[in-house]
Amino acid sequence: MTAAGSGAAEVRDAYVRALRDGDRREAFRLIDEARAAGLDLGTIYMDVFQPALREVGRLWQENALTVADEHLATAITQAAMARVYEQAATWDGHARRTLVAACVDTERHEVGLRMLCDLLECAGWDTTYLGATVPVDSLVMMLRRRRPDVLALSAALPPHLPRLRDTIRAVRLAMHDAPPLVLVGGRPFLEDPALAARLGADLTAADATTAVRLLNERLAPPTAASDAA
């Protein structure tokens, strides 16, 4: 394990303890110290926040935490994300690609989408984050106005997958002339990546960092060699 990885693991374990205690101030202190020690935004998101929330989810499934505990942990993490993002974000003023991110209208697990948008913004994208439970009609109206390059959708629970499929169909029907690339994510796709294509999406990714890389590769401008060809 690298020094950065080792440091992130230590921060993650302490951060989980802060979440279990519902201690917002301690959570913020840990993240502020991690930033001061040199951990970048992507490392904090992927190696601290994401595994910490997965651990909280596991503890909730085992009845070691209540629903209220889980909601508090999520709220603390969302606030911590906003705090570290504000400290880390930079822009060059020339967004190259655009993305709209939303949870299907029965889905409330939104933290992964927020991470994706934050990391893409730092990579020079212009993102529009709509959050949880976005009705299909409203989403389609937004897409028609903004005409993004990519639509990112999240579904964390299997019962929400039929609605995700219907949302993708509605978007493709409404924007048949210039449909966005559709990226999907959530626990069901970790277990079965091929599910994305079966539901009509273009691609999926295991985490936000991987999604940023895949999108930049997929939407990279053609090279001079390919232009000549």
Automatic annotation (TrEMBL):
Key words of the record: Cobalt, Metal-binding
GO BP annotation list: homocysteine metabolic process; tetrahydrofolate metabolic process
Any one of the GO CC terms: cytosol
GO MF annotation, one: methionine synthase activity
Pfam families, A to Z: B12-binding, B12-binding_2
Keyword Phosphoprotein assigned: no
Residue ranges constituting the B12-binding domain according to the UniProt record: 96-226
Family annotation (PANTHER family): METHIONINE SYNTHASE
UniProt protein name: Methionine synthase B12-binding module cap domain protein
The species this protein was found in: Gemmatirosa kalamazoonensis
